[in-house]
Amino acid sequence: MNTLVKAGWLHTCTGAPPVRDGWFLFEGERFTAVGAPGEPCPPAGVTLDFSGRSVMPGLIDGHTHFSLSHADEIDPMPVMRQLQEPGPRKICKAVMYAGEHLRAGVTTVRGMGEDDFIDFDLKAAIDAGYIAGPRVIPAGAFISPTHGHGQTGQTVSDGVEGTRKNCRLNLAKGAELLKVFGSGGVVSGQAGLSRCTATPAELRAAVEEAAALGKYVAAHVHGGPGMDLCLAAGVRSLEHATLCTDEQIERIAAAGAWVTVTFSPLSHPAGLRNLDPRTQSRLDSVRRTYYAVVGKMLARGVNMCLGTDGVHGAMWFEAAEMEKCGAGKQQCLEFITRRAAEACRREKEIGSIAAGKYADFIVLRQNPLDDLAHLRSPLAVYMGGLKESERMNRA
Length: 395
Ligand SMILES: [Zn+2]
Description:
Bound molecules: zinc ion
Helix content: 25-40%
Number of helices: 13
CATH architecture of the largest domain: Alpha-Beta Barrel
Largest sheet: 8 strands, mixed
């Protein structure tokens, strides 16, 4: 049965400006038609009237981890300890966070690495309808050496053969991308924020393994020589990229690579906190440079999307911070919808309101182009044509 949706403002996020009193139809899981006022509308069995509201595509979080949260008030513990929790316990938390994403309007999440491969099981449970949550794009276990960032000792990737083995293990389980490390991180890693613990040959091996199945590699990398190594190895998606030089930004743009910007762990009130002095100083150093670096990337036209990296559902915050770097509000909406779908290689299925794509859309009380904070707390969230509460009931 066809359902007609009437919007006060329709933000299709196809690259076109919003349409006053726009409408669209969906049937089953997919959009079937989109139109402006006055255009002939096929007959519909049901009408959802959101005339006073803004309607836009479901949001896409380009980088997070379901097993950890910087804002876990129930059982606060450092991120590295959260990663080392027993798998079943992480799954229980992940179910809660999956629901938080969906309620916040996030209908697709790209998982950027999980121990115990929990993202594959979480995705399977959501796809089967056991629990409510966003579409999951899984990376599986981190590809990190013994002394690398995020290493818990569970999946260790040392040497070219060790790297290939773990890449293939992830790919066999259904990874859509592989996650490597081009530098240390704020919370762990011997290499600091610019040195790389993986060798060029290990990075190339991961890129080769991914490419063999038509997949790609994303690298956690802040900057320094690690950024150069990732670019030389053919890494497609650069995560964080907080310390990029002007020359590196130029090379990222020339390569057509993607950057996933993650403001939330650094700047959101529920981001990284209660840190030891060494970790706090690392955090301060990247926060100091990040907004200027992202501003330069915007000016150069680098391909970008946004991710919350453990502050579940905070895509409204990511969009608002992007505006502070010089992006227009319309551009910010595209970074968390259409552009993010391209970053995830899912642009044929999600990311905009267009016939043939999944009927993932959210209803906002007020127009986000007046204030991006209106993205917060949507009135309704639909994924594949089903309202979030209907998904809960079905579960
Ligand atoms: Zn991350």
